[in-house]
Input
Amino acid sequence: MLIKEYRLVLPFTLEEFQRGQLWSVAEASKNETGGGNGVVIVKQHEFRSKSIRPGHTIEGVYTYKIYYLAQKVPYVFRKLFPETAFILHEESWNAFPYTKTVLTNPDYMKGNFKIVVETIHCEDRGEQSNALNLPKDVLKKREVVFIDIADDSNLKKGDFNDENNIHQFTSEKTGRGPLNEGWARKHKPVITAYKCVSVNFKWFGLQNRVEKAIHKTYPRLFAKFHRECFCWIDQWYALSMEEIRSIEEETQAKLKQAIDQGECKGMAEEGSDNKKSSSSDEEEK
Output
């Protein structure tokens, strides 16, 4: 098992990001779904639990999704593995500011593949040594990685467009932006997302290589999503939580309709059939 804790300083208050994150997840899901690939929301309901985060009673919204990713991976992998290898099941417990997400592949890897992402959002600049109160055995294995959402090196060439240009964007509703080198040291407001990602891939001879490869995707995934969340701020900033929940319900229905329509959309790896991404990427996160 390979464990890394990613820390992202973000230009929001906690209350703002709670709404912005939900809106942006819905928007990003639509942007990544089509051509037989993307996400389908199977279940979504309120929950209360004493076991999800040991030592805490948490409540919020539980979501169960299925990701179809075959056309987003390199062709060589699709020749080696069946399509079921690229179907991921995601369970998420959102008890903001704490969230927990578990990814599995029950149709192919069964109990031999699991990714757990634990996140806590705090009003600081990433200085806490153990914001998630990780146990000692996890701390010994954990590597801390800081991700600057304004650092373009985290992204692939095909990830950039006029709508997510964080270096030029200025919010009309908040006056925030643009974000450039050193922004996180002086920007107000800020919060930090502490994300502990544990990757477990049990396959003799491939475990270390695959776990490292999976972790290489996270700086891009996290940077791209949070950059877009900021650049979309004027679209979600004035929305209430009730309006956000209504948008989530509408998105759930739209995703079911869109999954098999059009071409594969969104992020893809080098050598995939995702024309939108691979045609403009030099090497494809």
About this structure: The chain has one domain: 2-278. The beta strands are 2-10, 38-49, 58-68, 87-95, 98-105, 110-122, 143-147, 191-201. The longest helix spans residues 207-231.
